């Protein structure tokens, strides 16, 4: 019980910190004279008060967190913060608790699936809040807490390992975890500022630029317009978006090392970055040729413009759209969604399996084929020239199995409710990989509002599973976790 009380003390600090983030949309509402000012002020007060009470009441039980405490805290944060995040949406919009929670989870998990329509008519403060949720969720609220609240007295390494995506989580950039988290967040914030200024300089309003900078760097995809990024119809803005989506799809540790060494060699030596960029851009060009060849577009430049942007967007799990790619031949749409399941790097703000796992799986397959020919040979799996332990290989295989199993079970559950196959399959893939839009009834020109409550909750669970990379979520549900 003391362990739980200690956990609630730390959770209170995170909730209080999260409440302070409501001050930005409150400021936007004040500057624009919007009626949402009061509801954001009430949500901020309620959230900060709830966090403060948890902090104070359970302060006598504070102690260093154990590894299992870190997993439980991350679980509680990602399942609990959307309850506070949905308060402004629930107060201002005529939507159910189910839809409001879905929207908040979609924001914090940087998924970008939405149940809302009429985005152009929403107050700027509401859209800014939706974008800010994605921005914080992209890098991780827990990582932020470790970065700026070391006085919590928590096990920073345990939280950082539970929160950080990817199979190799023990790599240190600095001797102290708090310094690492601060460094990553400073890079993240700096790139977001540059993205915001670029959007603003090339024609977006400052509110649109801010929201889209948030969702671009978070690889999330919420927009302030029903037409998504296609609303702007600007090649310059699309090039900016492609650039920053690719930057955000690379491991932020690599950006950290680049700033430290001032050499582009760190990107060349990154085993994920070059494969990620080549795979995504190469697929965009090939899809452009395919669309041009089947007559979807009359000229290749148009095909390249639309194919490249939307392929990069889906492959990086951002989810912006400049056209309804659901109307393209199914081959192109499914190719893009497949890319979204694995393309982004570990340590990026993207979702899915991650490129490092995909590469290790391919190398493990190659090793097994060689063993058929040479049963006695010792054939190590190497990554970036370094042998990878079998422990990591087994973990990657287990992760892939759980990912595929979860996708199959959830798809069957969606189909059992009467949902047609394309919508069921792509809704699960899009939420489990934190992509956002799928195809069919959840395509880029529609919303998830068409789903019933059960389907919506299933997609909500898929987003949480995907953001927490399965094991962080599932380990809390095992009986062994709760044994002393």
Write the topology of this structure.
Blueprint lengths: L1 H19 L2 H10 L4 H21 L9 H19 L1 H6 L4 H12 L15 H16 L1 H8 L7 H8 L13 H25 L4 H12 L17 H14 L3 H10 L3 H5 L3 H21 L6 H16 L14 H11 L14 H19 L7 E3 L2 E3 L1 H27 L4 H12 L20 H15 L3 H4 L4 H4 L2
Antiparallel strand pairs: 1-2
Explain briefly what this protein structure is.
This protein starts with a helix and ends with a helix. The relative contact order is 0.10. It contains 23 helices and two strands.
Characterization of this structure:
α1 crosses α4 and α19 runs antiparallel to α20. The longest helix has 27 residues. With 484 residues, the chain is mainly α. The radius of gyration is 22 Å and the shape is globular.
Number of E-type strands: 2
Q: Work out the oligomeric state of the chains in this entry.
A: single chain
- Work out the strand percent: under 5%
Give a short account of the largest sheet.
2 strands, antiparallel
Q: Ranges with pLDDT <50 over ≥5 residues?
A: 148-160
- Mean pLDDT, rounded to whole units? 88
The largest beta-sheet arranges its strands as 1-2
Please, how many helices? 23
Overall morphology? globular
Cα-atom Rg, whole angstroms? 22 Å
Distance between the termini: 11 Å
SSE string, helices as H and strands as E = HHHHHHHHHHHHHHHHHHEEHHHHH
Labels describing this entry:
484 residues, mainly alpha, two-stranded antiparallel sheet, 23 helices, 2 strands
